[in-house]
Amino acid sequence: FSPRGVAVVGASEVSLQGKVSFGGLVALGLVMAGFPAVYPVNPKFEKLLDLPCYPDLLSIPGPVDHVVVTIPAEGSLDLLDQCAAKGVRSVHFFTAGFGESGEEDRADLERAMLERARSGNFRIIGPNCVGLYVPKSRVVNAPNAPLEPGPIAFVSQSGGHAQNLPPFGASRGLRYSKVVSYGNALDVDECELLDYLAQDPETEIIAAYIEGVRDGRRFIDSLARAARRKPLIVYKGGRTEAGRRAAFGHTASMTSSVAVFEAACRQVNAIQVDNTDEMIDV
Questions:
Q1: What is the DSSP letter of 270?
Q2: What are the C-alpha distances in Å from 12 to residues 15, 28, 83, 133, 221?
Q3: In whole angstroms, how far apart are CA 58 and each of 82, 119, 252, 260?
Q4: Which pTM value belongs to this model?
Q5: Which of 105, 173, 239, 249 is the most buried (most CB within 10 A)?
Q6: Is the CB of residue 109 less than 8 Å from the CB of residue 262?
Q7: pLDDT tens, residue by residue, 189-206
C-alpha cells in the first residue's frame, strides 16, 4: 500500500486508435496525483506523458515495488520473471482472459503465474481487476481520483464498483483509507484483505462487494473477525440465477446459495446492503 515506485506495463497514449487505454489512464492518474516515481513500460514509445518510457522492467533505474499490467495474458509469465529479477513486491493484473474465460489452458496459466509469484516472493492482485486506490500514498487507478484520505476501506471483486464508490461517495463526505479491486482472487483474496483491514489502524469502517468465495469456512472466520472489530458492510453480487452466471463469467466466482451467505452475515453481525447507493447511505 506504500510503494516507492510504480511501473505501468503496456502503458500507451490515453486514447489510441479510438480506444481508451487503461494503462495510459493509470499512468496519467498517478502523475496527476503527484506520485513521485511513475515508470511507463512499452517498447513502442520512448516517452509518455513527458516521462521516459522503458522497453522492459529491468531497464528501469529506480526501485519498483508495484507493477500494473495491461499487456495480453500470453506475455504474463515472461513479465513475472522480470518482476522476480527486479525485486517487485506486488503485481496487479488489469489484464483479463484468464480463469474467468472458462478455458482450461487459461486456468493452467493462472496456476503457473501463482507458482512464479511464490518463487519470486511477490504477490498478485487480480487478474481481471482495477487494483489499488490508496489516497495517502497517491496510488490511484484513474485520473482525477479524490486524494483526501479517510477512514473507510473497500474491497471489491468488481472493478467498476471499486472505481465508482470513491467519486460517488465523495460528495457525501466519504473518504477512503484503501480500496482494493481483486478480481479473480488468484492470490490475494477477500479473506486476507478482511484480516488485514480488521487490524489496520487507518481503517475504521470496512465495506465489501463479493460475488463468490472459494473457501466458505475461512471466509466466515475472516468475516467474523472483521465484524467484531469494526462496522462491516457487505454487498453480495450474483443473487439471482442470471447474476450467478454473470459472476462466473466476470471473475470465475462460484457464488454460494444466497440464503447461506445471508445467514453467515447475520451470524457475524455484518450489515447487508443490496446496491452501491445503499452502501453509500450506510
A1: P
A2: 8, 10, 20, 21, 42
A3: 7, 18, 32, 48
A4: 0.91
A5: 239
A6: no
A7: 999 999 999 999 999 999
